[in-house]
Structures are given as structure tokens and as C-alpha cells.
Amino acid sequence: MSSALDRLKNLTNKISSYEVTRKQNLIELRVLYKELHIDQKVYTFEELFAFKAINLSGVSLLAESLGEIKKGKYLQILAISYDKEALKKSKNISLAYFGRVENVEDTLKNKVVEFVLRYRFEKSFLTLEHYNGMLESLKTT
């Protein structure tokens, strides 16, 4: 019985830790949203999450090479929108352009990488909530 109680305590601690991290992530994401001037293209912070995804070019987001530049490329934050009614369903939209990646200061490059990772972190929670809601609606029908 104690083992089940310990597992429940561990799970509760992990969930509350994620919620604290999520709240802090949103605060820092909002700061980067303004600092990187994304607010000039996406006028409200909440609109960011209407995009299917946000990606970047010119820098690696792979865990084993995170932040490494891709020489000859341009550093750019790209949003992917999706319109199921359109002939071409998905569309890339440039949210911020910073020039040739070799010429961008490391501090700025790291903020761009951080922005994309923080966005994806929050987007994963929103996706989780969406599917949880869908599963809950199945129970009521």
C-alpha cells in the first residue's frame, strides 16, 4: 500500500512541477515575443498559438546539435499556418528575419532558439489539453 501512495505522491509532485514550469515558460515566452519583435507581425500573444507550428531556419534544433549554425543560411523564425479550405493547405509565414546566420550575435541566436523551444513547450500543453477534452467529450456521448 505504501508503494502505491509513494507513486501517487511522485506523480503529484511531477505534475505540479510541470505546471510551475509552464507558468514560468509563458512569462519568458511573452518577453521574447516582444524582444524579438514578433509582436510586429502577430499582434496579440495568444494569436501565436493559432499557428500549426513555429520553426526556424539557419540553426539546428536537434538535441545533439542544439544551437549550431548552418553556414550559408539565414536566421529566420517561420510560422506554419493551415487552412483546410485553401488549395494549398499549409503556408510558411516569416515572423522575424535576422540575416545571415554567421553574422548574428550568439546572444540573439540563442534567444531565437529559446523562443522556438518555449513556444513548442507551451504548444505541447495546449495539444494535450485539446486531446484530453476530446476524450472527455466521448465519455459524455
Strand count = 3
Kindly provide the radius of gyration, computed on alpha-carbon positions and rounded to a whole number of angstroms: 19 Å
- Principal-axes shape call: globular
pLDDT averaged over residues = 89
Strand order across the biggest sheet? 1-2-3
Biggest sheet statistics: 3 strands, antiparallel
Oligomer status: single chain
Strand proportion, as a percent range, falls in: 15-25%
Output the number of helix runs: 2
- Provide the helix percentage: 40-55%
Class by helix and strand content?
alpha+beta
The span between the termini is: 35 Å
Uncertain spans: none
| Helix and strand element order | HEEEH
Could you describe the 3D structure shown?
This protein is of the alpha+beta class and 141 residues long. Helix content is 49%, strand content 18%. It has 2 helices and 3 strands, in the order αβββα. A 3-stranded antiparallel β-sheet has the order 1-2-3, with helices on one face. Strand 2 and strand 3 form a beta hairpin. Helix 1 crosses helix 2. The longest helix is centred in the C-terminal third of the chain and has 35 residues. It starts with a helix and ends with a helix. The relative contact order is 0.14.
